Amino acid sequence: MSRLSSLIVVVVAACGGSPKPAPGVPLPEDTKPAPDAAPAAPATAAAPTPPPPVATAPLDVKVPALDTTVKLVSSGTGKKQAMRYTLKPGAKQTVEFAMDFTGKQDADTKIVPTLVLTGEAETKAVDPAGNAEFAVTITSTDARAVEGSQIPLEQFKKALGALSGLTIGGKLNATGTAGELTLHLANAPAELDQALQLIQLTLPRLPVLPKDAIGVGARWQSVTPAKLIERLDVTQTTEYQVTAHKGTTWTITGKTTVAGKDQEIEGAKITGISGTGTSETTIADGVMYPSHKGSLETQFKVSDKDKSATVVIKLGGAVTPKAP
């Protein structure tokens, strides 16, 4: 199964190739002595040699913009008005991102603890058309236990601490169409680029809204061509519906299906691409990040010569605005 395939390798690496290492995040070395280790020798007058400093360098990851098309199916009932992301210049907001990742190759399942990033979002500028430039600076990191994960939680939390100071910058227009995102970390350990790739894969994206005036019960369809793990071409189709509208607050739900043509990656054939997902989003006037939660599961078969494997990728994400 030498070429089966680089895509599977990426999935398994992202999930954690063994029970000990965290996926894409270098864990600190376990310094506990082995159970049968002899007692440490008495201290001598010589000062211990300090560990070498961890080499760091600026690290940047660019997340390409997605080309989403929107088609209104029904404008709903009652009073109708346009639903918009109405960002205000200089506005700030504390927001928490929680991200989940599970990967499965046949019977081998790798589950990652929930990765939690809390940051300060700021709207840098807004033009007359409502196109906003924003930045989120991560101020703290955490991890939450997930049933079935074999990754040591406390070590995972400690490793994630290197992400503090990460900035996520980009542009968002009034209907939710986003431009390219840039993830930047000024002082990153060399191995941390894989952690940013995991964030890139799981970071929740906001729903794209119709331009039309709508009311309760309105339905629209959004179609987004995307690349899963930067390699697999898929199309995500989401059917949205407005389930509530009170004052300046809208609640919408979404049901997503995933499809893709058979394709070849580095000699391996990818077939049977499919998937489903759900989401719920509450958008409030003047707030940059709405309350949002969603999940998406994609599966496909990878074949190389006479061998094959079924791969399943489960993504989960939540955005929670925090009180000032």
Characterization of this structure:
With 324 residues, this protein is mainly beta. The protein has a single domain, classed as Lipovitellin-phosvitin complex, beta-sheet shell regions. It contains three helices and 17 strands. It has a 15-stranded antiparallel sheet that branches. A hairpin with a 2-residue loop joins strand 12 (232-246) and strand 13. The chain is globular, with a radius of gyration of 22 Å.
Distance between the termini: 53 Å
Q: Secondary-structure element sequence? A: HEEEEEEEHEEHEEEEEEEE
Shape: globular
Query: Which stretches are low in confidence, meaning pLDDT under 50 for 5 or more residues running?
Result: 1-35
Structural category is mainly beta
**What proportion strand?**
over 45%
Look up the CATH topology: Lipovitellin-phosvitin complex, beta-sheet shell regions
Number of domains: 1
Mean pLDDT: 83
The count of β-strands is: 17
The percentage helix is under 10%
Query: What is the gyration radius calculated from CA atoms?
Result: 22 Å
Task: Tell me the CATH architecture.
Answer: Roll
| SS summary, helix count | 3
Largest sheet: 15 strands, antiparallel
CATH class: Mainly Beta
